[in-house]
Amino acid sequence: MNGKWVKASASAALALALFGIQAPDNAKAAEGDFKLTVLHTNDTHASLKDAPKRATLVKQIRAEKENALLLDAGDVFSGTLYFNAFSGKADLEMMNYMQYDAMTFGNHEFDLGASEEGHQALADFIKGAEFPLVSANIDFSNDEKFDGLQNKEYTSEYEDGKIYNGIVKEVEGEKVGIFGLTTEETPTISSTGDVEFSEYVEAAEEAVAAFEEQGVNKIIALTHIGYDDSLAWDNDLELAKVVEGIDIIVGGHTHTALAEPTVVEDGEEPTVIVQTGGNNSSLGQLNVTFDENGSVTSHEGELLSYDEVEADEEAAELLAPYTAKVEEMSKESIGVSTEVALNGEREFVRTGETNLGNLITDGMVTTAKKINPDVTMAVTNGGGIRASIDEGDITLGEVQTVMPFGNALAIMELTGAEIREALETSVSAYPTASGGFLHVSGLKFNFDPQAEAGDRVRDILEETEDGFAPIDEEATYYVASNTFTAKGGDGYDVFKAAYEDGRVSEPGNVDYEMFIDYLTGFESINPELEGRILTTNPFTDIDADNEFTPFIQNVYDIGLVKGTTPTTYSPNKILSRTQAVSMIVRALGLETEGKTSSFKDLGNMAEETKAEVAAAEEAGIVIGSNGNFMPNEQVKRAQLALMLKRVYELQNETEYDGDAADLPFTDISGSDEETIDAIAFLYEQDIAHGLADKFRPSEGTSRAQAAKIYSNFLNVIK
Q: Signal peptide location in the record (predicted)?
């Protein structure tokens, strides 16, 4: 291996500081014992921002631990713009700098197989690696791009930039065998082409036998099969149980952050399993002691955070040109524009349906169907939606800001009853904002927030070719989600149970990539609320299929409007000036206590409402005429436009200058300049569009229309 670092001698001081254990300065703790440190990563997914910090930790630990190996369990490919731009070259530069000792293949290493270049990027990665790659259950022989790269041996005479079933690495006179395994599920979740995968248990047994034949009794399985993934395929826990002779499993695929190693003791000797949480969230460190027979007699392990770590300067310099390109790319449009803001604001995505949540789940269904045509639904947690996207061209940077975690796709096999249980969990905290609130696609449901938590969900309808129909609680459905939620994150015990039953597969497609792939099927988008998630309300005069219903539901749920009676909303009734102002004050959360208005005509108005008018007056939102507010007059569409424009200006501390020349309306020429600017504001911000070439400035605004206008307005002012 090409050396770039000078490794200093081992020191007991670091061992004492990090692990609190007694140990002599040399590697042998007792006659016949052998100490080994395994540093490990998995599922880094081109998350290179903290790679220089990882390099610092690796350098520090190697300086203290002469017997240290650095291994990667696959899925270096795919996940961020570093991969989109450089197809693994940036990752390889970092791995070569850190002097990895070996790596196995993850399913995402095969993501480009269906591209015009096929697996050329993977072949180039292998050739450029200053370390060997190991796999005992992959056959590359049918793909000419890998000609001369694979040697199906277990050997101590290995070369960097080649693939072996396994390698024998000599560490201070001791032989350590390292072999690789990749999930057999890969052909169904990636684009493997002519690359073939064999059964993992048989491959592991052959590997152990081959090593033992060569006198190797310390064996590491470098795996990308998942810690506790579906037994329909493969996983590390099962591997440890059924294959004797494996001492350590350095795993990947399920992004399972094992804060402490798992020890499986079903066989004659224990097997220690480690894995990090993926996405370069930490560096794993495992210290083990072997006796003279190659059995693990003690171990300590932890996941090392980068939080307090300084970046390695040389690594940072090597990464800098790649980062500059990535930052430039983040400003580029994905080729799609949105005519409206996409709402990802915390208080909205954690309490109800948003147009952004709908788009994200629609994208998940679209991708999942390509993998499993039986997928009909998707759910994703609102806590995974971290920002909004402004009107206009959508950039890569915006998308990654919305979904910064790189959450991966999971497909769950659930009964209708389990879907109901999950939806109950989703709305259990309502109206309190909850990161577990689910956004949905392929279904819609309503719930009663006044009912006890756990008994709130009422109607659940699945989308069919003929429209929506009630779900069958005994039927089986395939539902896309993200792995965090599918494994029981945010308290979804029903999903966790399905995962433990082996009813969840993990294709691993990254959330923001699915979103982009879905959107690129459109030139522009203009998504509205669709009524996928509704609360039951007391209003008997609202038709569930009316275009305004989702908006009425939205403003009612967040407390902007009340009914005209306990059971009616009166959607066609014209909004009064008082009602319009009250909605604005509630939307902004303006302080009303102790406020007094100068208007002379508030009369017998409720004190609460007088205070709201006073707060709006003080903020400059309403002006009135001749000292009068005219509270009971209908609010004209032009007047409402003025009020909303003034709110926008109040929040942004600047005047809004609309482009009157671009307005299509033929009935506003008699309006003053400020009113025309206000109409332009509504039109340009996609809050209201009038009817064809008419804005109808002097007409009143119905309560139904107002609900839509205010919902759209809230997306603009956030």
A: 1-29
Question: What's the pLDDT band for 560 if we cut at 50, 70, 90?
Answer: confident
Count how many domains the chain has: 3
| Domain assignment of residue 3, yes or no | no
pLDDT digits (tens, 9 = 90+) for 375-428: 999 999 998 898 899 999 999 989 988 887 778 899 999 999 999 999 999 999
CA-based angle 96:3:23, to the nearest 5? 100
- Check residue 3 and give its pLDDT: 32
d(CA 72, CA 38): 10
Do 358 and 459 reside in the same domain of the chain? yes
pTM of the complete model: 0.64
**Confidence (pLDDT) at 718:** 61
Residue 523: CATH number of its domain: 3.90.780.10
Q: Examine the domain organization and report whether 480 and 345 are in the same domain.
A: yes
CA-closest candidate to residue 422, choices 506, 511, 496: 496
Contact 472, 416 (CB under 8 A): yes
Whether residue 506 contacts residue 410, with contact meaning beta carbons closer than 8 Å, is answered with: yes
Nearest Cα residue to 399 out of 285, 281, 513: 513
Same domain, 261 and 352: no
**Residue-wise DSSP of 445-476:** EEE-TTSPTTS-EEEEEEEETTEEEE--TTSE
Whether the CB-CB separation of 247 and 263 falls below 8 Å is answered with no
Packing angle between helix 51-64 and helix 313-330, nearest 10 degrees? 160
Residues 443 and 343 in one domain: yes
Count Cβ atoms below 10 Å from residue 32 Cβ, excluding itself. 10
- The answer to whether residues 496 and 548 belong to one domain is no
Distance CA 285, CA 282 (A): 10
Alpha-carbon Rg for the chain in angstroms: 31
Confidence of residue 31 (pLDDT cuts 50, 70, 90): low
pLDDT per position as a tens digit, 225-239? 999 887 878 999 999
| Longest CA–CA separation in the chain, Å | 101
- 3-state SS, 2-49, equals CCCCCCCCCCHHHHHHHHCCCCCCCCCCCCCCEEEEEEEECCCCCCCC
Tokens of 161: 């930039």
Domain that holds residue 642: 538-717
Integer Cα distance of 350 and 345 in angstroms: 8
- The residue from 533, 556, 572 where one domain ends is 533
Q: Smallest Cα–Cα separation from 302: which of 17, 12, 8?
A: 17
Rounded to whole angstroms, how far apart are CA atoms 285 and 537? 55
Q: Domain of 53: which CATH number?
A: 3.60.21.10
Does 207 reside within a domain?
Answer: yes
Residues 6+ apart with CB under 8 A from 647: 584, 587, 588, 619, 621, 713, 717
Same domain for 318 and 351, yes or no, is: no
Establish if 210 belongs to a structural domain. yes
In this prediction, residue 219 has a pLDDT band, given cuts at 50, 70 and 90, of very high
Q: Which residue bears the tokens 């038709």?
A: 543
Residue 380's beta-bridge partner residues?
Answer: 439
**493-507 per-position pLDDT tens digit:** 999 999 999 999 989
651 and 680 share a domain? yes
Query: What is the DSSP secondary structure assignment for residue 118, as one 8-state letter?
Result: T
The answer to whether residue 24 is domain-embedded is no
- Out of 472, 498, 533, pick the residue that ends a domain: 533
127, 140 in Cβ contact below 8 A? no
Share of the chain above pLDDT 70, in %: 95
Report the alpha-carbon distance of residue 129 to residue 247 in Å, rounded. 26
The mean predicted confidence, pLDDT, of the chain is 90
Q: Do 208 and 240 belong together in one domain?
A: yes
